[in-house]
Specification:
This protein is an alpha/beta fold and 325 residues long. It contains ten helices and 18 strands. The radius of gyration is 26 Å and the shape is globular.
Length: 325
């Protein structure tokens, strides 16, 4: 079995990613001491990289699989296969400006600066995404047509519209306005940091989550494809497990049918007689969101409820990557 090379992200989603991997693979060793960590599976070679790099590195085949944000896949325009939404690292990409500015939309901001012949300056880590989003607005098309905003980095300057400039941010983007730039393109979970820096959101561009991606050539390799399918199953098991609760319920015989009929959340439960005559055990998995709704019914009909959070719920019959061969 060939080794599958796996890139995992450093930075803001590093902690939640490793919690997910620990649930999926039982042990993760070497973390904190090196960029090369080891999972309990010896056929997977794991390295920590910045999430911005992972889409391109997976596309180029340096790594077979990786975990990164949808935002960075879009920014890199990476040609990779998204195999699973891990439902972690959820952030919103937004446009924000100082509270003192009178504008309530990106179109209004662009329109006013254009009419006053003022250069509009943005700060962003997502240069291509920011440029494409600005260029697609009605106000930009009205005033600047198909010209590209000027993208400015310490080593590169591209674009032919000098009236709208996008400066590369190396972090702390929210600190740039109003002295250095007029607006920012940034990510936020709650908007709290932006508000603390006297900024207001005028546009929400997109929502991003962390995803498990694969190199398309790696998926055509039969041996690697099987190992990657195993990885998808384990990771999906954690994603699904976090949404569920495992219930063990003791119920008298006379209440058993009523319990099963009155609780539509119970799907294919296991019913077993207990050692004490006239009692049964009901073993089932339910959606976490349903639990609070069914507690009143269970309290009246059942006794001895045990609630566990499953480590994984493995969808073994649902994971098949043969379509990528």
């Amino acid at each position: 079995m060939p080794t599958v090379k796996f890139a995992v992200p450093k930075g803001s989603i590093e902690e939640v990613t490793f919690k997910l991997l620990e649930q999926a693979y039982q042990t993760v060793s070497g973390r904190g001491r090196t960029y090369r960590v080891k999972l309990s599976d010896p056929e997977i070679e794991t390295k920590i990289l910045r999430p911005q790099e992972i889409p391109t590195y997976v596309q180029e085949g340096f790594y077979d699989v990786g975990i990164t944000g949808r935002d960075w896949i879009k920014e890199a325009k990476a040609d990779v296969e998204v195999l699973l939404d891990l439902e972690i690292g959820r952030v919103n990409q937004v446009i924000a400006i100082p509270n003192s500015f009178p504008y309530d939309s990106l179109d209004a901001l662009i329109d006013d600066f254009a009419k006053k012949k003022k250069t509009l300056r943005f700060s962003a880590e997502y240069l291509t995404t920011t440029s494409a989003y600005i260029k697609a607005t009605k106000a930009y098309k009205k005033h600047y047509g198909d010209s590209d905003p000027t993208i400015i980095t310490p080593w590169l300057r591209v674009g032919d519209n000098k009236k709208v400039e996008i400066f590369l941010s190396f972090g702390a983007t929210e600190a740039k306005p109003p002295e250095d730039v007029d607006a920012i393109f940034d990510i936020t979970e709650t908007g709290t940091t932006l508000a603390q820096n006297n900024l207001k959101i005028i546009d929400t561009v997109a929502t991003s989550t962390a995803v498990f991606v694969a190199n398309k050539k790696s998926l055509k390799d039969a041996a690697k494809r099987e190992k990657i399918a195993d990885m998808v199953a384990l990771l999906k098991g954690v994603v699904e497990g976090r949404k569920k609760l495992h219930l063990f319920v003791n119920v008298r015989k006379e209440n058993l049918d009523k319990l099963l009929k009155s609780l539509p959340a119970l799907k294919r439960p296991t019913v077993s007689p207990l050692s004490e005559e006239g009692w049964f055990g009901v073993n089932t998995v339910i959606d976490k969101r349903e639990f609070i709704k069914i507690v009143p019914k269970m309290r009246k009909l059942a006794q001895g409820i045990v609630v566990l959070e499953p480590r994984q719920i493995l969808p073994l019959d649902e994971v098949n990557l043969d379509g990528y061969s």
